[in-house]
Amino acid sequence: MSDDPDILYIDSAAALETLCGQLSGTPWLTLDTEFLREKTYYPKLCLLQVAVPGTVACVDPLALEDISPLLDILYDDRITKVMHAARQDMEILYNLRGSLPAPVFDTQIAALLLGFPDQVGYGTLVSELLGVKLDKLHTRADWSLRPLSSEQVRYAAEDVIYLAQAYERLVERLDELGRLDWLNEDFERLVQPALYSNSPQQAWLKVRGSNRIKGASLSAIQALAGWRESLAQTLDRPKGWLLRDDVLVDIARHLPDNINALGKIRGLNERIIGKNGEQLLSLIAAARNREPEPPPATGPRKRLKPAQEALADALMAVVRLCALENSLNPAVLASRKQVESLVAGNRDVEVMQGWRRKLAGEHLQALLDGELALKVSAGKLILDNP
Predict the structure, then answer these.
(1) What residue ranges of the chain are covered by domains with CATH 1.10.150.80?
(2) Of 182, 161, 160, 159, which is closest to residue 171 (Cα–Cα)?
(3) b or e along 183-203 (b: 16 or more beta carbons within 10 Å of the residue's beta carbon)?
(4) At what angle do helices 215-235 and 270-288 cross, to 10 degrees?
């Protein structure tokens, strides 16, 4: 996409039909969204940008009654959807259809295999790969307001125009290095529904401070967090607007058994007490007599013994050697926390999965098993047979 095509603004059914005809049959397209979620539980889609060689369009879902024809294109499994930091865009699509499009290609993830740092920003990637400095003027714009200015439309379109060019550059370089297939496992994880479905039953795991309470209080926080999640989804309002995390934890700690006691919880909105107080008390009462769901098995991080710390140091040296050999940032291969988890006997860590296992994980395992050793040769640290 070396040429800069005109930007189409799609705000009618006829224009959308024409666009979908242009997109149909393409092997890949770039995709981005503009949305708001400050006042809602679910992100509100305000603009959807797509590009293929020769065509760039900004689709206005606020002006269109139905964008199903475009969604049919995006959910075509013969078309690769290219995004940068795809999780938020995928969440929006999941909320629209209850399922996820595939296959996908995330340029933020792919950039890791070319030595870029973890979670590299779109602007940085475009600057490094294409030598283009993007304007950040409209980063905090309210995309729900109409009409959009020509500058806003241009800003939004650049998110897919340069993404297409970056994608082609990334694919070319990764293919030259023989690393393109290494990304398959990472991209497959992006289309797992569990990443995007906010189950009320699991909501307590995201409540700050819930890991510090036990017994009936833990059972209460599980019930209360589930109630809040369901209500926020029903009302389409941010969870914090109903009950903040710290208020939920205080309720669970005190386990009030009447409205007066509930009203003494600091920060608890009087409107919630008046409208939902009896329901909250009922949830708390049931929680008193119910065993809580056990926390995830990960548990707190254990302090290593001195000998284990030394072994972790050696493993980190292996990580750095593997990163150096493959022109990568060591931090994208494995963190110190992951290495310490390996030393403690846990193999269910990211460095032991996918392409990271190929580059570093297998060497770490071999060192732990005594099949490889760290040696010094000509003033350099190397991996060798023991």
Answers:
(1) 200-288, 306-384
(2) 182
(3) beebbeebbeeeebebebebb
(4) 140
Q: Which amino acid is at 266?
A: R
Q: Return d(Cα 318, Cα 208) in angstroms, integer.
A: 35
Q: Which residue has the tokens 């699509």?
A: 93
CA dist 131 and 128 (Å) reads 6
Q: Which CATH superfamily is domain 7-195 in?
A: Ribonuclease H-like superfamily/Ribonuclease H (3.30.420.10)
- CATH 1.10.10.10 for domain 306-384, yes or no, is no
Supply the DSSP string of 313-358, one letter for each residue: HHHHHHHHHHHHHTT--HHHH--HHHHHHHHTT---SGGGSHHHII
Mean pLDDT of 364-368: 96
pLDDT digits (tens, 9 = 90+) for 60-80: 999 999 999 999 999 999 999
> What predicted TM-score, i.e. pTM, was given to this entire model?
0.89
CB burial class (10 A; 0-12, 13-18, 19+) of residue 273?
A: middle
Angstrom distance (rounded) from CA 346 to CA 257 = 43
